Amino acid sequence: MERTTRIMISTAMLAAAITCGASAARAAGASIAGDCAVFSPDGGRIAFQRERGDRFDLVVRDIATGSETVVESGDEILAGQPAWGPDGSLAYIVHPVTNTAYEAVAAKSDAGCNVWLWKDGVKRRVTRGRWHDNTPSFGPDGRIYFASAYRLRRNGIPALYVTDPREANPERKMIYSSPPPQSVVPSTGLSQPSVSPDGRLLLWTEMCAFDDVWHLCIAKLSDVVGTTYRLTPFSTWAYSPRWCPDGRHVLFTGFNPGDGGWGVFVLDARTGRTRRVSDGTEPAMSADGRRIVFTQGGELKFADVGPDFFSFPDTGTGAQPWNEPERVVVSCGNMTNGMYAALGDDCRFGTERTFFVRAEFDLGREAPATHDVVRGAYKESHLGFHLYFSKGTPNFGTRDRNGRHFRVFSGTRFDGRKGVMTGIRTKDGIYLHVEGRGLYSKGLTRGAISLDHPIRMDTGVALEKAVKIVRKVEVGTGWPVNVPKPFAGEELFR
User: Fold this and answer.
1) Which of 4, 128, 139, 381 sees the fewest Cβ atoms within 10 Å?
2) Nearest one of 162, 160, 218 to 190, comparing CA atoms
3) Around Cβ 108, how many Cβ atoms within 10 Å?
4) Pairing of strands 291-296, 299-304
5) What are the beta bridge partners of residue 408?
């Protein structure tokens, strides 16, 4: 955890420099070594972190003159991750490199990796404790949002917090800790919270526990847990998000399969569409929306924002799996004695379309530890898809051609008797929706599962003389009407 203050992705992995737009920094002289740069509110300065051996210093540079002020530097600290506030204050982190959490506990120290504030040459510490506070950013109201391993909440997963630096003794308030009851990205990491310019939306990065990929997530700040959506595809690595001044678009560092290296991306938060702008990392936009700054090859690069910067390729309305309407292919009811139903080519568990199975059930009080609800047999595997309970926990699983299990589960026991559970397979992931519980997901970033020869569907007591719990089963294509869309950007902006 300590080294995450340096930079999540090494800039040494990037390709050679590219040609950028007109740059005031180049007019001021030599290239600028550094990363994680951000523009001041007036656009006249940038704050960034600069590597010095195995340490990081925090530097503020006047863009027009090239003069620099070293805010933090020392042989015993890492300093960086700057963020400007609306009043010109600068928030950043200071991490004592010789003070691990274990050492801090042993020494009864309250000094860990904490958030500091700098303005007009005056510095003060905002957060305290031996915790790993990191990636601060300002909301438009002057409050600071940050990620922290404070007390390692929720099984060791960091949480997102907010604090008000204007208070004499600022207190931290937790605003999100994953996974919530309806987690869209069962996670092992949270980082980089950022509030939209109008103060309505919260953006952050979350690492999926299943495939170790960082995703961008978004929610209404007034109800983070209840409105959380995943912004980026399962297959896209995405981190370091920053809002553009228009409050609609987001810059982030990303990587797609097949890319030659890390890239600067722009995203439309309403539609979820993205475009790769350049090779590089840690992009940020000036407050007037005219320039961006990013890191490439260990140096800061500036580029002008042209008229086509926010233009995105037209991928069509059907590009997202949840835009394909539901079509029921097989429907079975009154299955007290179980049922077999033939499956046709419409039920191919391939990668070219969305496929779902929906079951109404009555679990009862005497259900066994493992209880099948619906099973789809394929030529390659008799468990091509599989809705089941494991110790009362809803699961949706699949098998690959070699019979290996791949599943997504709700994470909590089902304590009601009746309900509806829906398993969904898309081109890049699987989902499980449990009525009243929410939507759970898992990406197929390590290789898609494709079973091409459907045979039959088994339900009820046709499955190993199981308890009679299945009331109705439907199998079809498209996104099921009873399941909320994983991404609802338009709804968040209303």
Assistant:
1) 128
2) 160
3) 7
4) antiparallel
5) 396
Distance CA 28, CA 364 (A): 74
User: pLDDT by residue (tens digit) across 442-459?
Assistant: 776 544 567 888 888 887
Beta partners for 191?
205
CA of residue 25 relative to chain centroid, distance: 33
Q: Which of 234, 244, 237 is nearest to 430 (CA)?
A: 234
| Backbone dihedral angles phi then psi of residue 481, each to the nearest 5 degrees | -70, -20
Distance, in Å, from the CA atom of 382 to the CA atom of 224, rounded to the nearest integer, reads: 40
User: How many Å apart are CA 21 and CA 260, to the nearest integer?
Assistant: 22
What is the CB-side half-sphere exposure of residue 88 using CA atoms within 13 A?
8
Q: How many helices (H) and strands (E) does the chain have?
A: 4, 36
Interior/surface letters 16-29, b for 16+ CB within 10 angstroms, e for the rest? eeeebeebebeeee
- Angstrom CA distances, 386 to 184, 436, 453, stand at 20, 21, 16
- Label residues 276-309 b or e (16+ Cβ within 10 Å = b): ebbbbbbbbbbbeeebbbbbbbbbbbbbebeeeb
- Three-class HEC string of 152-179: HHHHHCCEEEEECCCCCCCCCEEEEECC
Burial 386-404 (b: 16+ CB within 10 A, else e): bbbbeeeebbbbbbbeeee
Question: Can you read off the two tokens belonging to residue 385?
Answer: 């898809």
Phi/psi at 314 (nearest 5 deg)?
A: -80, 100
| Percent of the chain predicted with pLDDT > 90 | 38
| Whether the predicted pLDDT of 471 surpasses 70 | yes
Asked whether the beta carbons of 421 and 394 are under 8 A apart, the reply is yes
CA distance 489 to 494: 9
